[in-house]
Design brief:
This protein is mainly alpha-helical and 192 residues long. The protein contains seven helices and three strands; from the N terminus they run αααααααβββ. The protein has helices at residues 5-38, 40-43, 51-56, 64-77, 82-97, 105-109, 135-149, and strands at 162-165, 176-182, 185-190.
Length: 192
């Protein structure tokens, strides 16, 4: 027997043990995410999910309205925390329910599209490609979109129907009430 096989065997044993521990941790995360996805109580608190737990949920699917919301979240909030993604989704869904805006997600998201820099959601009229380049980020925001469309309570933005990034100060904010600041966005609703 070679004198070097023992230390190599120890290293291999240590690596296998580390992989087994990592596998057990991943299994616990999957179990936790599945329980949260099923639990009606936790369904009311998507904010208790970590990004990693969101990633472990089943692939989200849906029709055109779902796809419009997922795309909007991708372009408007993919770099945000879960709370930031939820907040942007709240604005879109609040608009759908408002008499002041179109009555479908797709119509809300695409309102004003075709007029350079005069649309409601900048990614639809900024002249840049709307191609989804980061599939993992899209899958995450799509899961958030699905949860929101399935009835997640909207509690973060105080009924906001508008938002902007911290990088800009639009004139229209003077006519609205500020409701929240979440991540890189500030949220507003009508004063009425």
């Amino acid at each position: 027997m070679n004198g070097t096989s023992r230390p190599r065997g120890n290293r291999l044993h240590a690596e296998v043990s580390a992989l087994n521990r990592a596998d057990a941790e991943a299994s616990m995360l999957v179990s936790s995410a599945q329980q949260r996805a099923i639990s009606a109580e936790d369904r009311q608190s998507i904010l208790s999910f970590s990004p990693e737990e969101i990633d472990l949920l089943p692939v989200a699917r849906g029709g055109d309205e779902f796809k419009c919301l997922a795309e909007a979240l991708y372009f408007e909030a993919r770099g945000e925390s879960i709370a930031g993604m939820v907040a942007v989704a709240e604005v879109i869904l609040n608009r759908v329910e408002s008499d002041d805006f179109p009555d479908t997600v797709c119509k809300v998201v695409n309102q004003g599209t075709g007029k350079l820099h005069q649309c409601q959601f900048s990614y639809t009229c900024d002249g840049r490609s709307d191609r989804i380049r980061n599939q993992a980020a899209y899958e995450r925001v799509a899961k958030v979109a699905r949860i929101m469309m399935d009835g997640q309570p909207r509690m973060l933005t105080g009924g906001a129907t508008h938002y902007h990034t911290l990088r800009v100060r639009p004139r229209w904010t003077k006519n609205l009430s500020r409701t929240a600041r979440i991540g890189a966005h500030v949220f507003y609703r009508n004063n009425a």
